[in-house]
Amino acid sequence: MVQITQPTDVSALCVQIGAIQMKNPVMTASGTFGYGVEFSGLMDLNQLGGIVVKGLSLEPVPGNPPPRIAETACGMLNAIGLENIGIEAFVKEKLPVLKGFNTPVIANIYGKSVDEYARLAQKIDGIDGIDGIEVNISCPNVKAGGVAFGTDPEMAAQVVAAVKKQTGKTIIVKLSPNVTSVAGIAQSAASSGADAVSLINTITGMAIDAETRSPVLGNITGGLSGPAIKPVALRMVWEVARAVDIPVIGIGGIMTAADALEFIIAGATAVQVGTATFVNPSACIDIIDGMADYLARHEISCIRELTGTLSLD
Amino acid sequence: MAQETATILYNTRISGTYCKIGLTCAPQYASAAAGQFVTLKIRGRMDPLLRRPFSIHRRIKERNQVVGLEILYRVVGGFTGQLAEMVKNEPIDLLGPLGRGFTISPDCKKPALIAGGIGVAPIVCLAESLDENGIDLSGAPVFLGGRTRADILCETDFGQLGMRRHITTEDGSYGQKGLVTEPFTGWLKTHKPDIIYACGPHGLLRAVSGIAREHGIPCEISIETVMACGLGVCMGCAVKTRDSGEGYRHVCKDGPVFDAAIVTF
Q1: Host H or E run for residue B141
Q2: Which residue, of A90, A267, B109, B197, has the fewest CB within 10 Å?
Q3: Is the model's pLDDT at A148 over the cut of 80?
Q4: Cα–Cα distance for residue pair B137/B198, rounded to 1 Å
Q5: Is the ipTM, as predicted for this complex, more than 0.90?
Q6: Which chain A residue lies closest to B78 (C-alpha atoms)?
């Protein structure tokens, strides 16, 4: 059993997202940390700012035909297709273990219709141990729903409003970069009741095998993640942070504490770490430690003071 | 399972594009099963980005204690090219042991081992484990196949265990010319193993699984896919199996060793 430890200076790194108090601004990105419990033997889950679990649907989803993964220059494409065990199995089998840790749990949800999102939110509303909902309107790898709601401000508003109606829990809306104006979608989510927005989900891409003239992925296209997308993610976080008043959670290619701090400076309140966990399962912990070191080195008493401090002089 | 910073004990080219690397490892590898794997990452490198999976080839022992791991690898791309340049005492990020290995049962006393090319890597570990588990391997067959002479590896390792080696190369440069399945089907006319273990390219595994089914012999195969996490969280290494219904199994967690009867090719 891993020993329970607390960060040395709790107040310096703590942030708040909606009603969720986090001991630090580093969360796991959905789809890269399973249901959290898989990592309990590799790290102390108590050290994380938050655990965002694999996207959950009303019923189990089998996912896309393989191959589902293709590595690209400094990044990777995935087309998993939201394979998951469904909300009920998650609550029954995984959540009891997660409740044993002193870390907020955020359920990422995905529906094929506005009604499905609402029903998921309704189910989660009564469940103790789930602190917030991340509404996934940005998965590029499923045919129905997902990104269809994340590329139209009106549709995004409908989903968020439907979720808001069903729950008092903190609502985070995860945004797609595959749009002309990400700030427009973010504003739509904010005015419909989102407590925070998280971005970016993966960028739609593809890989081709020239020898066989065939796509590398079974799904033909997939979502690009990893350090290759960080500059795009940073730009979008910067744009969104200036357009909305709710907290922004930065995601996209964060591998190191320096990467995470760049997102904070661009305007993010917190960050999520995804692909880096595949490369180094304890990446989140290293990033938290590195952020604490930065604050000490720059004599910043609180990470919140750093948000949006990009110097344009 | 543990993530650790391993130290390279040695890194040697054994022939052509094949190399062996020795790494320090945690004591828990003593209970690792043959067929389990590890993932490696050269820290700080962004390209290639992801960890790479490798079968455990051998456990390095000193006075009956496991003090390290040996990995047999072929230099095929970016990662293995970088790996081949690493030298003794350099650190490398090691995660493992991962996945499900071969089943060793005291009821199976007459195994047949089959390996194609670099697929021999876990088969050597398996042979050593069978031997440690008191299975008498003297005269037991191992069928080794490769494209050419350079792809026939670890012959002496099997020889030391008293195993009978059947060699085939596709170009006929060593052993019998043809595919490894040819001498295997010939041998089956006069012998009946109680289990078949195989690792190698997709075509070999498909052929061996078919032969095992025809003869009604239990068969375990180690399969390879692209994977990202190795921990059963990314769902990237999905494979269809006869028992997975509408869903999939995952090579990193349910495998890489599967009962051949459930694998769909």
Answers
A1: strand B141-146
A2: B109
A3: no
A4: 16
A5: yes
A6: A73
